[in-house]
Amino acid sequence: MSRQDFDSNLILVQDIMTKAIISVNTETTVFQVAKMMEQGGIGAVLVKKDGHLSGIITDRDYATKIVSHNLPSDTPVEKIMSSPLITINYDESISAAAKRMTSKKIRKLAVTDNGKIIGLITSTDLVTQLTK
Fold first, then answer.
1. Partner of 5 at 20 to 30 A CA spacing, among 29, 59, 61, 112?
2. Residues paired with 53 in a beta bridge
3. Mean pLDDT rounded to a whole number for the chain
4. For residue 8, what pLDDT band results from cuts at 50, 70 and 90?
5. 47/59 Cα distance (integer angstroms)
6. What is the pTM of this model?
7. How far is the C-alpha of 36 from the C-alpha of 31, rounded, in Å?
8. 117, β-bridge pairs
């Protein structure tokens, strides 16, 4: 697909989302999550509460919530996670994803299928698609 052929209303979230979901429980420490992110080369981990994905912790949370408030490394992720998860359906356009990210001032969206989280889409995914 050339840039001239690019139409962000025709490309769907499911076409570019990441299907691998990494999650932790609410008691996991921010240090443990930081190590997971470093080792996995990832920028976000989903958080499970009572068996359901209910929040997200991102690399940005470390700067805005942990470092700026000088929280200890054994702080449970539940204390800093962003919740509720902001989602988008897998069959929506990437243009809709970009608009939701912009309006919510976030960089990552959980992707759903009938209410079940099946992946993540990030602002990096959108930019990568634009450069193809």
1. 112
2. 48
3. 92
4. low
5. 14
6. 0.87
7. 9
8. 112
What residues pair up with 24 in beta bridges, in sequence order? 47
The whole-number pLDDT of residue 2 equals 43
Token code pair at residue 89? 């359906």
Instruction: Please state, in angstroms and rounded to a whole number, the distance separating the CA atoms of residues 88 and 99.
Output: 11
Residue ranges of domains in the chain: 3-130
Q: Residue 34: which of 65, 13, 2, 3 has the closest Cα? A: 65
Q: Say how many CA atoms lie within 13 Å of 131 toward its Cβ.
A: 6
Helix, strand counts (H, E) of the chain: 5, 6
For 63-99, how does the pLDDT look when each residue is reduced to its tens digit (9 = 90+)? 899 988 999 999 999 999 999 999 999 999 999 999 9
The pLDDT, as a whole number, for residue 132 is 80
- What's the mean pLDDT in 39-54? 93
Fold topology of 3-130 = CBS-domain (3.10.580)
Question: Are the C-beta atoms of 87 and 109 separated by less than 8 Å?
Answer: yes
CA-CA distance, 69 to 37, in Å (whole number)?
20
Task: Look at residue 56 and give its three-state secondary structure.
Answer: strand
